[in-house]
Amino acid sequence: MSGGVAASLRRIFVANQHHRLLIVSTCLIPKNHRAFSMQYKDTEKPAHPFDYVNKNYNFFRHYYLGGHYTLANIHDNTLFFHVESNFGVRRSDFVKRLANHIGFLPISKPDMDRMHFVDETGTINTRQFHNDYCLPRDYMPIPEEWHLNPNHYGSVRLLRPLLQTMTYQLRMGLSHMLSTGQGIVMDRSYWSYYPILNILRDFGFISQD
User: Fold this and answer.
1) Residues spanned by the domain of 173
2) pTM attached to this predicted model
3) DSSP sequence for the chain
4) Structure confidence at residue 66 (pLDDT)
5) Is residue 209 included in any domain, yes or no?
């Protein structure tokens, strides 16, 4: 994707093989309207990317430890793509294919159980252990179960770790984009659950706070 084409994108509408619609949004407002092809790749590598995985970027590192200025890595293809869709349309596969075509980094949907309930060895799931011995009102659902039967108690127990997980996903994606200059394609995000939160608030499942 060339710089002029990337800067002009606002929304891309792509229908997959099941004829369901996927919407890809960017954060920029178009200045020009041009045709483009996903088959064309024009990747740009920053001259001096910051190693955000092993180092913390702070005031002292910026001014006293090498003077690394991350804004120098930002260019026309430093973009944020957010892919949203309904269930069962192979959104995750589309995110990987799109990121590969345009030379961006795919940010997959995080595993809530792995981040909050499964230990480092991957053998103990505290959520499953809790559900095996708890009262029905204290049951902690997974997102698929909650969509089938939303209720007051399940909403609170699900949404808090879910939003924490999505916040971590967004923070890691933005850290990569701002530290290296490479654009990212995110599989859903923190904002995906705002409609659900608004509906729960309207029906009294959660408070205004």
Assistant:
1) 3-202
2) 0.66
3) --HHHHHT-SEEEEE-TTS-EEEEE-S---SS-----TT-------SS---TTT----HHHHHTSS---GGGG--TT--EEEEE--TTS-HHHHHHHHHHHHTPEEEPPP-HHHHHTB-TTS--BHHHHHHHHS-GGG----HHHHHHS--HHHHHHHHHHHHHHHHHHHHHHHHHHHHH---EEEES-GGGGHHHHHHHHHTTSS---
4) 56
5) no
